[in-house]
Amino acid sequence: MPQAELDRTPAPATGEPTALGRVIVTGGASGLGAAVAAAVAARGGTPIVLDRDAPSDGALEHEQVDLADGRAAEAAVALAIERHDGLDGVVTAAGTDACGPLRETPAADWERVVAVNLLGTAAVVRAALPALERAPNGRIVTVASTLGLRVLGDATAYCASKFGVVGFSRGLALETAGRVGVTMLVPGGMRTRFFDGRAPQYQPPPDAPLLEAQEVAEAVAFALSRPRGVELRELVVCASEETSWP
């Protein structure tokens, strides 16, 4: 076999977790993204936050960017790769929502949900792929939702975006098999600020079974640390009494 082909042959799985290295975390200034950034840092990795807001922990590496702007997102990824001399992982935790009947939801608000949740995810991954393919064990974790597999009324924008993330993730895993690991995360409801500011009918009830974001972040870190040749293709993490799964 030619040496060039040997160089491209994936190393066999060793069974030993790998170091997390340099990991871009979109939406890393709050919620699940912040928990993922903390989990990466706790394991000796370097989280690089992409968010409109700066992380409250000023020590974290970050680029402030509106992920609804795909070209700006790509530029932020390129800058992060340049500053850190490469990249080992990406977690696309940024997400937003616009609840309400379709006819009553302003078009700009509806379209922003798809722009951030789906198109922003694709833009970040697209820009990161060359660096991830050069990494010893490049990894991507996309964040879908139980509403990427089922639907609710008054949630057309969010469902459309997360159904898109499901299709994108499954297609990406097939496209990059053997070169970059892809995990699609399906989290159940979490106790974060994601529901703040919504009308009462769009907020979880006080007794809703919600997970702490840190628990989901631990699952993300586990997926990122799998040895080359081992992938968690799809990962559901939810409270035991989660009503939206299965």
Explain how this protein is built.
The longest helix is centred in the middle third of the chain and has 28 residues, at 107-134. The protein has a single domain (17-237), classed as NAD(P)-binding Rossmann-like Domain (Rossmann fold, 3-Layer(aba) Sandwich), CATH 3.40.50.720. The chain is 38% helix and 14% strand. 43% of the residues are buried. The protein has six helices and seven strands, in the order αβαββαβαβαβαβ.
Write the layout of secondary structure elements.
Layout (H helix, E strand, L loop, with lengths): L2 H6 L13 E5 L4 H12 L3 E6 L9 E4 L5 H15 L4 E4 L14 H28 L4 E5 L12 H20 L5 E7 L25 H12 L9 E4 L9
Parallel strand pairs: 1-2, 1-4, 2-3, 4-5, 5-6, 6-7
Helix pairs in contact: 2-6, 3-4, 4-5
Tally the structural domains: 1
The low-pLDDT segments are 1-12
**CATH architectural type:** 3-Layer(aba) Sandwich
- How helix-rich are the residues, as a percent range? 25-40%
Order of helices and strands: HEHEEHEHEHEHE
Broad shape? globular
Numbering strands along the chain, what is their spatial order in the largest sheet?
Answer: 3-2-1-4-5-6-7
Q: Please identify which CATH superfamily we are dealing with.
A: NAD(P)-binding Rossmann-like Domain
CATH topology value: Rossmann fold
Structural class: alpha/beta
State the name of the first-level CATH class.
Answer: Alpha Beta
Radius of gyration using CA atoms only: 18 Å
Report strand %. 5-15%
pLDDT averaged residue by residue: 90
Contiguous helical run count:
6
